[in-house]
Amino acid sequence: MRLATLSRPDSTGSRVVAWHPEGAIDLSPTPLPRTLREIIAQDLLPAVAAELARGTLPLLPAASLHFLPPIPDPRKIICIGLNYRDHATEQGAPIPKEPVVFSKFPTALSGHEHPIQLPRVSQEVDYEAELVVVLGRAGRDIPTELALEHVAGYMVGHDVSARDWQKKKDGKQWLLGKSFDGFAPTGPWFVTRDEVPDPHALPIRLRLNGQIMQESNTAQLIFSVPYLINYVSQVCTLEPGDLLFTGTPSGVGFARTPPVFLQGGDVVEVEIEGLGLLRNSVRA
């Protein structure tokens, strides 16, 4: 299934829908919870599938809909740095022996077609295409061999990064450099785990104004999804709806000669095979 969180221009609040080529199937008439995180937390994805199989739910025309982040209310946004071999190589960095872990504030979340607002206090805003894992079951000290059972599904993500904050501030401000409002677009939808047989075999690419800047495959991941879940869960309890950004491949802007940073009027598209295309314009 492909599920999204949408709003309508004529109303406040949000609704969970199942994506359909002709629009979106509205789940509002069902007794299901109102948020996708609650549906996942209550293990109700099978119930959603059963409701859809009945074929009686209304179809909303796509033109009237506005995408929100599929999971707009995660408790945690966990991110991994230097997790693609080609990305480490382009920086001249050694292959990490353990994951580099940081976080983003939930206020950084945005959705498909939401503009990325360039901060007045940063001149070096960069792009990063990422596979995002959505946790489905709570757990602490999750064994690697059982970790995928704790995954609900996957999304396309964009880890926007203010490099001058992340790398040039005194002491380096990874958290703040990654957490400006709108610096974590995800979507356009959430894809359930059963539709992704192997999260480590997905072509991933990023286009900037139509030009391919990043192109790789999740086979390049240094630390696998199960390994990351095991590693992080040694420290904190992972909860349903938590997001795990798994790292970015080579081709990022700051590593280019000359560097390429986002400018007002740019359009960034992140695409992962089988998961969809996430598009965001850039606003000065």
Sum this structure up briefly.
With 284 residues, this protein is α+β, with helices and mostly antiparallel strands. The protein is built from six helices and 19 strands. The radius of gyration is 18 Å and the shape is globular.
Describe this structure in words.
The chain is an alpha+beta fold and 284 residues long. Helices cover 15% and strands 33% of the residues. The chain has helices at residues 36-41, 45-54, 85-90, 163-168, 174-178, 225-233, and strands at residues 2-7, 15-20, 23-26, 59-61, 66-68, 77-81, 100-103, 109-110, 116-117, 125-126, 129-135, 151-158, 161-162, 184-192, 203-208, 211-217, 243-245, 267-272, 276-283. Strands 1, 2, 3, 4, 5, 6, 7, 8, 11, 12, 14 and 17 form a 12-stranded mixed β-sheet that branches. β18 and β19 (276-283) form a beta hairpin. The radius of gyration is 18 Å and the shape is globular. The mean pLDDT is 94.
Shape type? globular
CA-to-CA gap between the ends?
36 Å
How large a portion of the residues is in β-strands, by DSSP E? 25-35%
The counted number of beta strands is 19
Radius of gyration: 18 Å
| Helix segment tally | 6
- Spell the H/E element sequence: EEEHHEEEHEEEEEEEHHEEEHEEE
The biggest sheet amounts to:
12 strands, mixed
Flag low-confidence runs: none
Mean pLDDT: 94
Fraction of residues in helix: 10-25%
Counting helices, strands and paired strands, the structural category is alpha+beta
